[in-house]
Write a structure and sequence with these properties.
Length: 156
């Protein structure tokens, strides 16, 4: 599976050009609430990647990138609150098009939250998705954590 839209997202966000990133970890932060600043995302998901950042770098991971259906100002404020800006790149998918292009969109309109994304993580190498972990329930944190990706990198 190839990630459609990632190179455009990275270009628009002004980060390293996609062809220069050979190994990266992507994670999406979303939950039954708004994603950024929510319980599971703030207490578990992002910290699991921040805690493992040195292990990822030692295994040749170029970047750990967090993309959420939020505006860039919210993402920046959240990254500052988590003290994770030095470890993880945070980007807002303000209109959800990136997640929709990956078929990871989640409609939470019935909970008054609009279109969001499922909680997921991926390991991407040379532009190809090697591992994609998608949570089945928005409030769960079972398969998308940093420890799991780290363990998978050990076996590769």
């Amino acid at each position: 599976m190839r990630i459609k839209g990632l190179s455009l997202l990275l270009y628009l966000c002004g980060t390293t050009l996609f062809h220069q990133l050979t190994r990266l970890v992507l994670l999406e932060i979303s939950s039954f609430r708004t994603g950024a600043f929510t319980g599971v995302c703030t207490a578990q998901h992002v910290p699991s990647y921040k805690k493992n950042i040195d292990k990822f770098k030692a295994k040749g991971v170029d970047s750990v990138i967090c993309v959420s259906v939020n505006d860039p100002y919210t993402m920046n404020g959240w990254a500052e609150k988590l003290e994770a800006k030095d470890a993880i790149e945070f980007y807002g998918d303000f209109d959800g098009k990136f997640h929709k292009s990956l078929d990871l969109e989640l409609d939470l309109s019935s909970a008054l939250l609009g279109h969001r994304s499922t909680r997921w993580s991926a390991f991407v190498e040379d532009g190809k998705v090697k591992v994609l972990n998608v949570e089945n329930v928005p409030s769960e944190f079972k398969v998308s954590g940093g420890e799991l990706i780290n363990d998978l990198l050990l076996s590769s």
